[in-house]
Amino acid sequence: MTDIARNIKHARLARGMNQEQLAEALGVTRQTVSNWERSASNPDLATLERIAAALETDTAGLIYGVGQSTKLAGSPTLRALACALLYAILLCFGGLVFVYIMMEFFVLGGSGIGVSTVTDGFILWGLILLAGFMAARPFEGGK
Fold first, then answer.
1. Which residues neighbour 68 within 8 Å (Cβ) at sequence distance 6 or greater?
2. 28 phi and psi, to 5 degrees?
């Protein structure tokens, strides 16, 4: 018995369903469900998604097992970690640009730079911060 077969059977039994009930919910025969659970055949991905919906679980739970899917869902993803790193880098870089603009304009008396340069610097600083905030969107539920 493969993991998927075992996981389908486990999820079905956990929901208190028999093979006939699952088959009816999916629009297939009881023999088809039996074949999946015995590893005589495997459902395709679209059918696996329908099975997961009928058993009120997720596809990862059917593929990897219920305990494994919750571990996968609860751990931080590589994308979220990359976004956090990008956010931190952009905020630091934005801060450095801001400090440079202030130093150039106030400490050095603005010698050699005009209003246009300062304006361009603030626009650059704003764009850097905007990119940082957009990188943080996965933490706020955005995709």
1. 60, 61
2. -125, 175
For the chain of 143 residues, list the mean pLDDT of each consecutive stretch of 10: 84 92 94 93 90 88 67 54 75 76 68 62 73 62 45
Q: Are 3 and 63 in contact (CB under 8 A)?
A: yes
**AA identity, residue 74:** G
Taking a C-beta distance cutoff of 8 angstroms, is the pair 3, 65 a contact?
A: yes
In this structure, the dihedral spanned by the alpha carbons of residues 103, 107, 109 and 112, taken in order and rounded to 10 degrees, is -40
Round to whole Å and give the CA distance between 125 and 119. 10
**How far is 12 from 108, CA to CA, in rounded Å?**
73
- Domain positions in the chain are 3-74, 78-140
**What pLDDT sits at residue 70?**
43
CATH number among 1.10.260.40, 1.20.120.340, 3.40.50.2000, 3.30.70.20, domain 3-74: 1.10.260.40
Tell me, rounded to whole angstroms, the distance of Cα 107 from its chain centroid. 45
Ramachandran region, residue 113 (left: φ > 0; alpha: ψ -120 to 50; beta: rest): beta
